[in-house]
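Weekly modeling sync, notes
Attendees: S.R. (lead), two postdocs, one rotation student

Agenda item 3: backlog of single-chain predictions. S.R. asked that every request posted to the team notebook include the full sequence so nobody has to chase files. The rotation student volunteered to paste the first one in as an example of the format we agreed on. Action items at the bottom.

Example entry:
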Amino acid sequence: MLTDIEIANQAKMLEITEVAEKLGISPEDIEPYGHYKAKLSQSLFNKLENKPDGKLILVTAINPTPAGEGKTTISVGLGQAMNKIGKKAVIALREPSLGPVFGIKGGAAGGGYSQVVPMEDINLHFTGDMHAITAANNLLCAVIDNHIHQGNEIGIDPTRIMFKRCMDMNDRALRNIVCGLGGKVNGIPRQDGFQITVASEIMAILCLSSDLGELKSRLESILVAYSYDNKPIYARQLGCCGAMTALLKDAINPNLVQTLENTPAIMHGGPFANIAHGCNSVRATKLALKLGDYCITEAGFGSDLGAEKFFDIKCKSADLTPSCVVIVATARAFKYNGGVPKTELKKENLDALKTGIENLRIHVENMKKFGVPVVVAINRFYADTDAEIAFIKGYCEDLGVECRLAEVFEKGGEGATELAQTVCKAIESTKGLSKFKTLYDENLPIKDKIRIIAREIYRANDVVFTSVAEKSIAQIESLGFGGIPICMAKTQYSLSDDPTKLGAPTDFDITIRDVTLSAGAGFVVALSGNILTMPGLPKNPAAYQIDCDSQGNISGLF
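Predicted structure, as returned to the notebook:
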C-alpha cells in the first residue's frame, strides 16, 4: 500500500492558473507561489461582491480518538464527489500547523486518494501565513517589553501582561518561562510563556476578519495588559498595529490549491478547535461560496468543539447560514469509545461498538439543535467488517438520520457519490428556507452562556467556576465585554472536561479554571480541565519518521 506522500507525489497536478480558470478566476486576480499554489487577491473579492452565495456544508465529527477519524479526508472526498455528480463545489479548509505535523496527529491535507496537493508544501511552510502570524504576534510582545524597558509611560503592570509570545511548534518547555534576565540592559525580568501560533489571538483575528481594514481594527482592540491602577491597556495604545497589519497584508489573502482530482480547494487559517475557534477564515469561506454552488468546509475535532464554535462564533460573526452538517464517524472510533485499546481496533467487536456508538447519538442530537439538516458519513477503514457497518447503518436509521458509507481514502471522489447525492437531497428538502439558529443569546451573562454550552452540548449537570474564573469574569464584564460569544477550551477526546471519560459520559460537572478576554477576536475564552495552549511532543513524535534526501525528496510525511 502506498503512503499518503507517495500517492501525492504521483498526482497529475494542473498549473494553478488552470485551477483558477476552472472557477472563472482571471490571471490578474491570483498571486502565484510557484506552479501549484497561489494567493487570491482582494480584486477578486471586489469582482464577486454581488454574486449570489452557494450552499454552505459543514463537515464535523464525533469525538476524535488517537486512531484518527479522517474528517479532512472526508471533506476532500466529498468535494471531489460533488464534482463527479455534476455539482460545482469548492472546498474550504484550514492550513496545517507544524505542531501536529511533527507531533502525533500528522498533517492536515487529507489522506489516501482524497488529499489536497502539493501535500508536502501545504503541510510544511505553504505560503508563509503561519510565520506572518507568528511575527505579528511577537512584534506586539516585543513592543510591550520595550515599552516597559523604556520608562513604562502608560504604567503597564509586568505581573498582569495578558498577551503571550507564540511559535508554531509543540514545545512544553516554553509554556512557562522567565524573560528579561541578565541585567538592566536586557529588559525587566518577569514571568511569561508561549502558546502555539494556532491558539494565538492573532490567528483568530485573521480568520474572523472580512478585510484588511477590519483586521487592523481588531488588532487595535487586543487587550494586552492591565496598568498598575487596574485599567485595561489595548494594543492601539502601543503604536505598533500598523506594523502588525503590514506583516499580515499578504497572509490575509486565502490560498488556492487543488485535490488529487483537481477539484479547487481554498486553504486559509488554522486555529485549533480545542483551544481556539477551530474554523478556517471567513474570507476563504465567503470566497468559496461565491465561486461554487456548494462550499464544503470543516471545523476542528468533534462537533462539541469545532461545530459549536462554527455556528456560535463564525456564523454569527460573519452572517453565514449553513445548509447541511455532515458528521464523520468510524467503526474503530466507536470501538475505542467502547473500551477497546488502540492496538485491538482492527478486530471485530460488536459489543464495544454498541457501547461506544452512543457518542454518535449525542453529536446527532446536538447538531439538530442548530436547525440544520444532518447526514452521517461512515468513513470506512479496510479492517471494518460488514457486520460493523450494518450495525452503524441500523443505528442511524433508528436515530432518524441519513447515513452513507464513504470510501474516499481508497477510491477518491468515486467513494462518496452516494454521500454527495444524499447531502444535496438534504439541502433541497429545506427548499432554501434555513431554520439555522445559534445556541444562545450572546447578550446573556458570561456564566449563563457557559452553562448553556455545558448542559446542551456536553450534557453536564452543571458548571463549577473556580475563584480565579469568577474574578476574571467579573473583570471582563466590568470592561463591557460580557455580551460576546464564548470560545470553550476543552479536551477534544471527551464530551466532558476529562479525556478519560469516553463515549457518552453522564453525571459530571464542567470545571472552568479561568476565563480570558480575546477582545480583538470578539470572544471570551473559558479554560476547562487541564487544557493547554502550548502542546508538547509525544515520546515518539512524527518528526522521527520524516526525512529528506539529497535531491530534496521528502518521505515519512503523513
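Discussion: group reviewed the output briefly. The chain has 20 helices and 25 strands.
Action items: rotation student to repeat for the remaining queue; S.R. to check formatting next week.
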